[in-house]
Sequence to fold (609 residues):
Amino acid sequence: MDFASFLIQTLNSLQYGLLLFLVASGLTLVFGIMGIINLAHGSFYMIGAYIAFVLTSATGSLMLAIALGIPLALAIGAFLEWALFSHLYKRDHLEQVLLTFGLILIFEQLRSILIGDDVHGVAIPAFLDMSIQLTEVMSYPVYRLAISAVCIVLAIALYYVIQRTRLGMMIRAGNDDRTMVEALGININMMYRVVFALGVALAALAGMLAAPISSVYPNMGSSVLIISFVVVVIGGIGSVWGALVAALIVGFADTFGKVLLPEISGMIVYLVMAVVLLWRPEGILKKA
Amino acid sequence: MNTHVSLILKLIAVIAIACVPLSGESFYVELVAKMLLMAIFAMSLDLLVGFTGLVSFGHAAYFGIAAYSVALFSANFGQMSLWVLLPAAILLSALAALVIGFFAIRTKGIYFIMVTLAFAQMAYFVFHDTPVGGGSDGMFLDARPSTAIGSWVPFDLDNELHMFYFALAMMLLVYAFLQRVLQSPFGRVLMGIKSNEHRMQSLGYYTFGYKLAAFSLAGGLGGVAGFLYAVLFGYVTPELLSWHESGNVLLMVILGGMGSLVGAVMGAFVFEAMREFFADITKYWQLLMGSVIVALVLFMPGGLTAIPGRIKRALQGGAAK
Fold:
């Protein structure tokens, strides 16, 4: 592997890993704070991608679609928390698995009814639709760099919110001891709603950003969901920074696996997970 | 419910199932045969979920591994004897469960759910991405296994009725076997682990070993179901190992009420019946299925087997909650 292709694969790994982090961070927060295992999280990624497709077709601009799509995703998240997930906090994981499994079926069918089962492309915004020439034959698309940049900005913003703001303080406290937070007079229900909506919006945003490079297609949520689970398990459930580290590990393992060991590339990520679990059954970073 | 009544009800149910072929409709015979093998699958998972407290979300892997071993053995060695092929399929799925369980059982609770899911997904990719089992197309089974012992042929699996009664017999066999296992000291330990693992540990039980044994036993029994599936339908695809199937079987167990073998059987029958019924009335059956699942979780904790108790409480005390 020469330097240019090594560089390309490294950038691809980073971009994939960071995008995974957006999805997995919501999953891990919702689990860590609310104790909810949410199988429908991958559907939010799918919904985001389809929102990007529909709104980009309608408005002609992905940027505009994202600007409209994020509030929409937040609203969907808040509504679902209110209507369904708020009833699940005191139930056991099994029932959460079931309900969210049912939700996946509903979301996929609604997607099929509303938009159909075809694969659709989403146009890259014109000002990002170019490539950087690396060698005479190899180049790297600017849009992928832009995705990585957006994800890095969001990761920093998330860090700031969780470590430096009052909401973040409540989130961290809720992660440690839910009853105590309630006893201190914090409106835990409102906090749950905010966190859940935030998780949905992060997953949906990941879907919107990925839509132009992966195109939108049925069941696109499933594969992302399973990989996000792997990320969350490797990183340690409830740990946002664990999710970041794990997402990057998975991003590199998957991307380089496809290049170096194409025969077993589908399995590499799971092998990594098995090794990590042998070494640390509770993930790399137990808690943030 | 006292034991006599429950025994009589079970007998009636078995006789009713045994009478299905009298309808003369191949469609129903095949459907009920599928329900029977799904009942085996659900019971095997219930051993983990309902009795040991291990929520496995990757149980389809063992079903699929057994189904694929049927297809792969038959493709390489031609028609095989049932008496070799069935034990081989069970053994292979139990072995896979042993290896996966060795990793998965180190984790607990939600980690366990996610890890079993991820390993099953890994098995899915083995068959989906590599040419070993025909890739994403899966493979066809050339011939159903022969049942000959020497020159004696007790029954013929190519015969629709024989296949049906074979599935019924296997279901009853697995039911009786699991019933026996649960009454044995081993089964008691598993239930003890479910209610309080630390207590079992302080009583001196090596719980990891017990859980691993239960996990591979459940894998092997899930393999019985996978074997029957491959033989009944004559083809296997990677989708048999997909997490949707793991979710479906978990749903059957919960639908029937966890920790009850009869419940698992009922759950499998009701689930398959619902799937047929919804698919029959609308092409949007997933929407109905999903809505039923969501409603079930929200409004009916405890599953189908909890209904009599709920009705009783409602009659006695007014509020059923």
Remarks:
- The longest helix of chain B spans residues 26-52.
- The mean pLDDT of chain B is 88.
- The CA atoms of residues 88 and 291 of chain B lie 40 Å apart.
